Amino acid sequence: MALIQCDFYSEVLGLSTSMNVILPQETQTQIGMEGKASSGKHPTLYLLHGLSDDHSIWLRRTSIERYAAAYGIAIVMPNAHRSFYTDMKEGGQYFTFMTEELPRLAESFFPLSTLREDRFVAGLSMGGYGAFKLGMSLPHRYAAAASLSGATDLKHMYNVRAQGDPVWKAEVYRMFGTLEEMQGGPNDLFHLATELAKLKSADIPKLYQCCGTEDFLYEGNIEFRDHVRKLGLELTYEEERGTHEWGYWDMKIQNVLEWLPIRQQQRV
């Protein structure tokens, strides 16, 4: 695998930012692993970080490079700061950045496939929310979306955490506005799932969700899982004992890579 730190300027955000990129490399003589790569442009997983982290965290806390090597898939890990991957009410236009500018730039810098069937998104916590938001908002762009311990139910942030923490309450408002503004709109995963269910099954991305049963986001994940299932959407759901920590995510990202519908002709 080739590992690249790419520093670039974002016109959408109006600032310099970064992404880490892992590119497949076919190898036979590396000790402890064998790399695979396609002969053409690579299928790509956009892998999103959580609220307190940045673009470097998946490399620092997991073995994502080693895991990805077996699948011949590129991994793009962008920096989205504390944005919840949304066009903020008072702040940067991070959803526009993530869905329009970032893939356009990444696909111009690196040999990444531009086909919907080769483009996937996953993330943890805030990034799990972001992965579902991107995948469900733009099903024509992503073949699969995976949420690991995702912040799937934003009502909890308003009704529980924000009520006892004025600093967090102000940050949530800068991201989403009021609860009334958030609900039923483009930042509400429950609403996005309802709209997604109206599409033909062939146009709906595959969905994967997992959460540890001791995670503080577990209840919200169960509510979202049940909502999706009531809509009749196909969802791969996994749970076991676990909290909001990297040992769990290092384990589950391996499941995500195995679950992704990576086209067989790409594995050479």
TrEMBL record:
Coiled coil: none annotated. It holds the Pfam family Esterase. Keywords: Hydrolase. InterPro entries: AB_hydrolase_fold, Esterase-like, Mycobacterial_A85_antigen. Signal peptide: none annotated. Gene3D superfamilies: alpha/beta hydrolase. One of its GO terms (molecular function) is hydrolase activity. PANTHER family: DIACYLGLYCEROL ACYLTRANSFERASE_MYCOLYLTRANSFERASE AG85A (PTHR48098:SF1), ENTEROCHELIN ESTERASE-RELATED (PTHR48098). This is S-formylglutathione hydrolase FrmB. The lineage of its organism: Bacteria, Bacillati, Bacillota, Bacilli, Bacillales.
